[in-house]
Automatic annotation (TrEMBL):
InterPro entries: ARM-like, ARM-type_fold, Armadillo, Insc_C, INSC_LBD, INSC_LBD_sf, Inscuteable. GO terms for molecular function: cytoskeletal anchor activity. The lineage of its organism: Eukaryota, Metazoa, Chordata, Craniata, Vertebrata. Residues 93-545 form the Protein inscuteable homologue C-terminal domain. This is INSC protein.
């Protein structure tokens, strides 16, 4: 009975919220506990939207529950959501189905036929719900999509019937012979499901492209770009679909129209997301995207937010982690003016976030081409970056310091760099970076701190070939700090890369100032081969051949 079903759920909600009116009179820890309970109920209510239809359909043999007029808005979800919300709902449902199919394969491997059947019924319900929900808010599906919908529904029904026959027999030989057929059907269901989702997402990407390209309305264009950005956050596969459907071309078209200037930051943020995939990079090159980004960065009439987002795109497309940046030939043609604009952005940054994006772009460019380091030296970038590090409101996180020390490490290969470091009190900064520790314990922040320690040691090692830098490092007690980092795993967060860098820096300083080490430190950390000192510091018993 539908009223009983609703009443049961209503009672569960009332029980969860019981005592809420008296929250103010409770001690703070108890208040927090109640707030956690409320948040859990809200989360449960959100999840229920994805599970309700499935539960009802399982119980009532795929017959929908009739609703009263005054409660219709509670159960019919699609009509009250925007396109972006509908897509998110579709993606959540698709994720559930994908997860269930994986679990079915696992249970099938273990011959748990009862579980396989119950999960197959659940997948069947989810597939039907997903298709119904999508068709509710999408009225212009293609014939190809309808064909795949029918194929998937029919195959899911066949799959359910198949597994039902399996639980009705106890003959092991018959089950063994049926298992290959069930596996084959499961593979086909997964294949049809993947093809349908691909079609749906391609269709939605095409709709958003159409809106962006044809609309003169700032409001409609902004809404379409926002939906597109949401899709890019779902992973690389969606970014590839968007790139293939002309997303990069459409977004750069927006960036070349003055009437959409207010949308530049949002548009550039979306471009940065799409350009994490090779297809996006190829499209950027085809539409002279580098030239457009250079124009935006060098145009002083644009807002700082626009410049920062353009820097984010540069940081993305020059990332040393990507293997497909070699084709960016046009970047070299515009590199000098881009680097100049980024240095200026670092110098004038009003917030830590703006500085982080600009410095990240510069750091990546120093990996991208060695000529960038010479340009940075000519622009007095070393002095600007060192000055920024003294402002705790601008360089306020290990992530920002990681970008700065990356630039310093890459510039330190130039002989002229040493005098700049001395003049800007850079050795003191490098010494401070050797003490970098995470305050939150967050894994990403801990990793950033390790990179800061490692790169500061590398920079010291490279710069200490200059006697003046080495002398300054010794006077600032760099040697005792490097020894402690080598000998104490907790100081370097058990990082082997930090250890190797510190050993290299210590050996360079020991050559310039041998009196700064005690004999035991010299005998263990400097005199042996680097690999032997490494093994000693890590307490490893293996020998490297």
């Amino acid at each position: 009975d539908s009223s009983l079903w609703r009443s049961a759920h209503k009672n569960r909600i009332n029980m969860a919220f019981k005592g809420e009116d008296h929250l103010d009179s409770l001690p703070l820890p108890v208040q927090r506990m109640h707030l956690i309970q409320v948040d859990s109920v809200q989360r449960w209510m959100e999840d229920l939207k994805l599970m309700t239809d499935c539960e009802c359909m399982c119980i009532l043999q795929s017959k929908p529950i009739s609703t009263e007029k005054d409660e219709q808005n509670e159960l019919i979800l699609s009509s009250q959501y925007s396109t972006c919300d509908n897509l998110q709902l579709l993606l959540k449902r698709a994720w559930i189905i994908s997860t269930e199919l994986t679990r079915i394969a696992q249970k099938l491997e273990k011959n748990k036929w009862q579980r396989v059947h119950s999960m197959t019924v659940r997948v069947n319900c989810h597939v039907r719900s997903m298709i119904n929900e999508y068709n509710t808010f999408n009225r212009n599906s293609s014939e190809e999509m309808h064909q795949f919908e029918k194929l998937l529904i029919d195959k899911c029904s066949e799959f359910t019937a198949f597994t039902e026959r399996c639980i009705q027999t106890e003959d092991e030989q018959i089950l063994k012979s049926m298992k290959s057929c069930v596996n084959e059907t499961l593979t086909t269901v997964a294949q049809y499901f993947g093809q349908l989702i691909e079609l749906v997402l391609t269709h939605e990407a095409q709709n958003l492209m159409r809106q962006i390209e044809l609309s003169d309305s700032v409001y409609i264009t902004e809404s379409a770009i926002s939906s597109l950005f949401s899709l890019t956050q779902e992973g690389a596969h969606l970014c590839r679909i968007i790139a293939k459907e002309g997303g990069v071309v459409a977004l750069f078209k927006i960036c070349r129209q003055d009437c959409f200037r207010c949308l530049y930051p949002q548009t550039l943020r979306t471009l940065a997301s799409i350009c994490c995939v090779e297809e996006g990079m190829h499209q950027l090159e085809k539409v002279d995207g580098i030239l457009c980004l250079a124009d935006i960065l060098t145009d002083n009439t644009h807002s700082e937010a626009t410049h920062a987002e353009a820097a984010a795109v540069i940081a993305q497309i020059t990332s040393p982690h990507l293997t497909f940046t070699q084709h960016l030939s046009s970047f070299l043609e515009n590199m000098e003016e881009i680097v100049t604009a980024l240095v200026k952005l670092c110098q004038e940054a009003s917030s830590g976030e703006v500085f982080l994006l600009a410095s990240a772009a510069l750091a990546n460019i120093t990996f991208f081409d060695t000529m960038a380091c010479e340009i940075l030296l000519q622009l007095n970038a070393m002095k600007i970056l060192l000055a920024a590090c003294s402002d705790k409101h601008i360089v306020d996180t290990p992530y920002s310091r990681d970008q700065v020390v990356t630039i310093l490490a890459n510039m330190s290969v130039l002989d002229q760099c040493a005098s700049e470091i001395i003049q800007g009190n850079g050795v003191q900064l490098l010494m401070e970076m050797l003490f970098e520790r995470s305050s939150s314990g967050n894994s990403a922040e801990v990793a950033a701190c390790e990179r800061v320690q490692q790169k500061s040691a590398v920079t010291l090692a490279r710069l200490s070939r200059d006697p003046e830098v080495a002398d300054a490092a010794v006077k600032l007690s760099c040697i005792p700090r490097l020894i402690k980092l080598c000998r104490s795993p907790t100081e370097r967060n058990n990082s082997d890369s930090v250890l190797v860098a510190c050993l290299a820096a210590l050996r360079r300083l020991a050559v310039m100032s041998p009196d700064g080490l005690e004999d035991s430190d010299f005998q263990q950390l400097v005199k042996p081969r680097l690999v032997d000192s490494f093994l000693l510091c890590t307490n490893m018993e293996e020998s490297f051949v």
